[in-house]
Design brief:
Helix content: under 10%
Strand order of the largest sheet: 1-2-3-4-5-6-7-8-9-10-11-12-13-14-15-16
Largest sheet: 16 strands, antiparallel
Radius of gyration: 23 Å
Shape: elongated
């Protein structure tokens, strides 16, 4: 987000009902700013800074509409990203912070708590393609403890790592049966430097029989 480089000749500011000028300094009211990098702010000002309700359009096509405090996104707002979805919820000091919903381009949805721009706290991630859900505690954008709930009602509850079950946990079935065991993760080396995807082999160990659930887990890499 551009700062108010008001001394630059390419900066233009138009107060509501007024003439185009080169500064918003000391202005209070509604106005529109065109920055040197072609980003646009249209909204409320207080003593020359973005403060109150407004719309900010970024040079890359991202669009934020909501609250501003001291030139930063702060309060409630919606940011529509050009190529990765949209977020609606609470902001603090320019970052997703508090409770909010992120809808991804593939229609997956995370709803829950955020801290400093990352998933953090209680939250639910829903896969659009399968209807499966991850529900539980999140830290640094990853689920660390909770449930993996399948569309048929069966669910796994336990510890997670790399957004997948790891170590001890229990499967609960609709008929009341349970199976307790351990997931073991093995990182598969990737020789392609351009492929950032983390490939993980999942193995389930238990005294009871369990279907090959790891196949479905490995199909989800959308975090």
């Amino acid at each position: 987000m551009a700062d108010d480089q008001q001394e630059e000749s390419n900066y233009k500011f138009t107060p509501e009902g007024g003439q185009v000028g080169k500064s918003s300094r000391d202005y209070t009211g509604r106005g529109k700013a065109l920055y040197a990098n072609n980003e646009i702010y249209d909204g409320e000002y207080d003593n020359g800074i973005r403060q109150g309700k407004g719309v900010y359009i970024y040079a890359n096509g991202d669009r934020y509409e909501g609250d501003f405090i001291k030139n930063l996104k702060h309060g409630i707002g919606k940011l529509v990203y050009k190529d990765k979805g949209e977020y609606y919820g609470q902001w603090e000091n320019g970052q997703r912070h508090g409770e909010g919903i992120f809808t991804y381009v593939n229609k997956d949805v995370y709803s829950g708590w955020w801290a400093f721009g990352k998933k953090d706290g209680k939250g639910t991630y829903v896969y659009a393609d399968t209807g499966a859900r991850l529900v539980g505690d999140w830290k640094e954008n990853k689920i660390v403890k909770g449930k993996w709930i399948l569309p048929n009602g069966t669910f796994f509850e336990g510890i997670f790592e790399n957004n997948k079950p790891n170590n001890q946990g229990t499967f609960y079935f609709k008929n009341g049966n349970t199976v307790t065991g351990n997931y073991k993760q093995t990182i598969i080396p990737n020789d392609d430097p351009d492929d950032k995807k983390l490939n993980i082999d999942m193995k389930w160990q238990s005294k009871g029989y369990l279907f090959q659930s790891a196949v479905l887990i490995n199909s989800h890499e959308n975090f």
